Amino acid sequence: MTTDWNAWHSLYDDPESGLSRRLRVIQGLIGDWLDRTAPDDVRVVSACAGDGRDLLQVLRNRGDAKRVTATLLEYDEENVARARSAAAEFPAIAVRQVDAGRAESYDGAIPADLVLMAGVFGNISDEDVQATIEALPGMCEPGALVIWTRHRGAPDLTPAIRSWFTASGFIEESFFAPDDVEVGVGSHRYTGPPQPPPANSTLFTFTR
Ligand SMILES: C[S@@+](CC[C@H](N)C(=O)[O-])C[C@H]1O[C@@H](n2cnc3c(N)ncnc32)[C@H](O)[C@@H]1O
């Protein structure tokens, strides 16, 4: 990896940045999903979770965080430390320092009711995006929601991404694509039957 993924989080310091706007959309989707699934116990997995702020900030402002079990997968040591610190108040939230591009890193954490793929699809090859989407049914409980992001810079891959989700048994719940920033945030619900987890293999490799 060539990117300093710890420093990357400073883009969140500007509340008007595209990244901050993206975060607010993701957090809104997570909050709506929590409302919809209440009062059931639910399981969340977050790939390439960074410092985990999307999920953790939402849970901090709710009274029903105890019904959420979550596993955050993150590779960068400093981000893992910050995520663990932020998650310390939630005993059912674990942060694994692992390669989220390897299927076995998800052992025991899937199938999940909510899968977060934020900040992944813009950093891997198009082939890996497609392969990961095709593996997602094996990571999802039937009815699970996947929240994903991808920038819409040319060539815009989001139309293909949305079609790959459809072909893999998902229906689109929302797609956020504002005119003034290239951010894209989608949410897709898995409508197919239970599937075996992805075989131990590489799902994706970061190219940045
Ligand atoms: C674009 S950031 C997204 C962080 C977070 N999901 C968010 O949206 O704020 C990508 C994150 O993926 C992490 N990462 C990169 N390659 C990874 C890998 N193979 N396994 C796990 N995490 C990885 C980076 O350290 C970084 O924190």
Automatic annotation (TrEMBL):
InterPro entries: MeTrfase_dom_put, SAM-dependent_MTases_sf. One of its GO terms (molecular function) is methyltransferase activity. The keyword Methyltransferase applies. GO terms for biological process: methylation. The keyword Lipid biosynthesis does not apply. Signal peptide: none annotated. Residues 37-157 form the Methyltransferase domain. CDD domains: AdoMet_MTases (cd02440). Residues 189-208 are annotated as: Disordered. It holds the Pfam family Methyltransf_20. Keywords: Methyltransferase, Transferase. SUPFAM superfamilies: S-adenosyl-L-methionine-dependent methyltransferases. This is Class I SAM-dependent methyltransferase.
